[in-house]
């Protein structure tokens, strides 16, 4: 093995092992490693694309190389500038920077000329078979295909017909250009694959200049080569396409030819991981849009308040493997929860308010409240305490079950960061529902300087009824009710209660004063993002306090 004048980074996955072998063999230097992130602009990116970004951008960064943003815009009927802009925003949100932004359409002229060259060398031919007829003659995994009756057209005729295709003489599907490889190949992808098709559609960048477009499997290796990509990192479904990738590069004499390496895509339980189905959800109005907080799109995660750092951490933890696997959604939530616990401020909010009056307390006072006890040096802030409070209705019971440590008649409980109170009486409405809890307090039980000697097991949160503000609280569950079962489509698995709105919660005024997008841990409730819509305070759930996936909420 040739000696190198540089040290190789330690390989932490099989892709890096392959790259290290190429470097050690003298094929390139570390800083010459070049990858590309190749989304098709036909929809918004989802969390699965975050892993592809982590692999492509992360690999290039580790070696001091480059990663391009490459838009595979070879199918104009489904692509929009809107999607291009959204993809750029998603990449920036995750904290990645590309060396160069380019498009397959940048290379359309060269890709066409390469096709002409293949025709001249007898490696491609114009075929009149329809897509259905081509499929019918493709053969099976155990039987060879049947050669097209147009396979032996002369070079001159193929050149003329291909030029006429380009000039718009034929309708969609009337003709196509196929590579001439081997109809008996054990790999079905090598059985004279279509490399150009007719498509009369306006392209989002080139307009109506072209009415023929290259197929992805043909354009992919060419665009990689023209960009200077050294290692083309793809998800595992392209493994069977690698022989065609190599055939194109070898047939056109690429030197050096990019090397395609496949890795397992990200699959997450209870999560729609298909742009086609995500688009269906948007178009059918089952969600509020591509950025609906329940959507696994990166714009949806961003809108929900998921920290970009937590997404990157998740991708790092699940690793890069060759074998397909499925990750539990709860593991992703755990990564988000861990980040939020370390970084989110603490606050109190009451979602189902029940009035609590301390009958023997007068005046108001400012209490100290930890901004984030998990963050060293975060400090404290002041909260207002008074006679009239709101507590969660679930924190009081007239007829409590055994081992109920919250408030009950004659029972004691500590109000978070405040005093111990005792329930002396209740006030009910005409229907017999408790509408107010009447308590007395223990003055010597002030939190942090308790000399009362009273031991209580229950601690509940509260807000000052005289200073609190109203807020709409939005809580979310998975769009899908359960893990995937064979024979079911997404419409049969939709969770009709994936979004729950609490229209009038009572919250600290501190939440209203916070900057837009600030994440908070609402004590005993969950992690939420603050936002304002039409002058209304909205708290949108980021993640629960603990794993409650697929479990009913009480």
TrEMBL record:
Residue ranges constituting the Glutamyl/glutaminyl-tRNA synthetase class Ib anti-codon binding domain according to the UniProt record: 344-441
GO biological process terms, semicolon-separated: glutaminyl-tRNA aminoacylation
Gene3D superfamilies assigned to the protein according to its UniProt record, in alphabetical order: Glutamyl-trna Synthetase, Domain 2 (1.10.1160.10), Glutamyl-tRNA Synthetase, Domain 3 (3.90.800.10), HUPs (3.40.50.620), Ribosomal Protein L25, Chain P (2.40.240.10)
Xref: PANTHER family: GLUTAMATE--TRNA LIGASE, GLUTAMINE-TRNA LIGASE
Family classification: Belongs to the class-I aminoacyl-tRNA synthetase family.
NCBIfam families in the cross-refs: glnS, PRK14703.1
Name of the molecule in the record: Glutamine--tRNA ligase
UniProt organism field: Candidatus Borkfalkia faecavium
């Amino acid at each position: 093995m040739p000696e190198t004048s540089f040290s190789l980074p330690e390989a932490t996955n099989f892709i890096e092992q392959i790259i290290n072998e190429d470097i050690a063999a003298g094929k390139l230097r570390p800083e010459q490693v070049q990858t590309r992130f190749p989304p098709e602009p036909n929809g918004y990116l989802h969390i699965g694309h975050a892993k592809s970004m982590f692999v492509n951008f992360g690999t290039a960064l580790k070696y001091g190389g480059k990663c391009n943003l490459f838009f595979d815009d070879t199918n104009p009927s489904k692509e929009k500038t809107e999607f291009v802009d959204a993809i750029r925003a998603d990449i920036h949100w995750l904290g990645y920077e590309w060396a160069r932004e380019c498009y397959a359409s940048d290379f359309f002229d060269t890709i066409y000329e390469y096709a002409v060259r293949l025709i001249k060398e007898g490696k491609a031919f114009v075929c009149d078979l329809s897509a259905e007829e081509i499929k019918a003659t493709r053969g099976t995994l155990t039987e060879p295909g049947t050669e097209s009756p147009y396979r032996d057209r002369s070079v001159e005729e193929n050149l003329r017909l291909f030029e006429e295709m380009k000039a718009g003489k034929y309708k969609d599907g009337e003709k196509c250009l196929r590579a001439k490889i081997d109809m008996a190949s054990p790999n079905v992808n090598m059985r004279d694959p279509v490399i150009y098709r007719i498509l009369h559609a306006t392209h989002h960048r080139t307009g109506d200049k072209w009415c023929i477009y290259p197929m992805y499997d043909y354009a992919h290796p060419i665009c990689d080569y023209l960009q200077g990509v050294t290692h083309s990192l793809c998800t595992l479904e392209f493994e069977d396409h690698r022989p065609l990738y190599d055939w194109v590069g070898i047939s056109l004499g690429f030197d050096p030819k990019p090397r395609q390496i496949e890795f397992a895509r990200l699959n997450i339980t209870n999560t729609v991981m298909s742009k086609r189905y995500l688009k269906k959800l948007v178009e059918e109005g089952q969600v509020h849009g591509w950025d609906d907080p329940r959507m696994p799109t990166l714009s949806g995660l961003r809108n929900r308040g998921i920290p970009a750092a937590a997404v990157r951490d998740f991708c790092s933890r699940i690793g890069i493997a060759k074998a397909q696997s499925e990750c539990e959604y709860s593991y992703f939530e755990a990564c988000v929860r861990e980040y939020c616990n370390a970084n989110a401020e603490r606050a109190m909010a009451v979602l189902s308010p029940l009035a609590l009056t301390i009958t023997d307390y007068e005046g108001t006072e400012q209490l100290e409240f930890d901004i984030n006890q998990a963050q060293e040096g975060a400090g404290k802030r002041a909260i207002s305490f008074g006679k009239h409070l709101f507590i969660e209705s679930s924190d009081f019971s007239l007829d409590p079950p055994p081992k109920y440590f919250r408030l009950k008649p004659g029972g004691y409980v500590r109000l978070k960061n405040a005093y111990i109170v005792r329930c002396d009486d209740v006030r009910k409405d005409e229907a017999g529902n408790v509408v107010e809890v009447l308590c007395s307090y223990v003055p010597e039980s002030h939190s942090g300087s308790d000399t009362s000697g009273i031991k209580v097991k229950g601690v509940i949160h509260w807000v000052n009824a005289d200073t609190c503000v109203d807020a709409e609280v939005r809580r979310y569950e998975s769009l899908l009710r359960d893990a995937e079962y064979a024979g079911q489509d997404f419409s049969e698995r939709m969770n009709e209660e994936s979004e729950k709105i609490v229209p009038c919660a009572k919250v600290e005024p501190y939440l209203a004063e916070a900057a837009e997008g600030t994440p908070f841990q609402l004590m005993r409730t969950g992690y939420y993002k603050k936002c304002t819509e039409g002058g209304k305070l909205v708290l949108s759930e980021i993640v629960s306090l603990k794993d409650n996936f697929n479990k009913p909420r009480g």
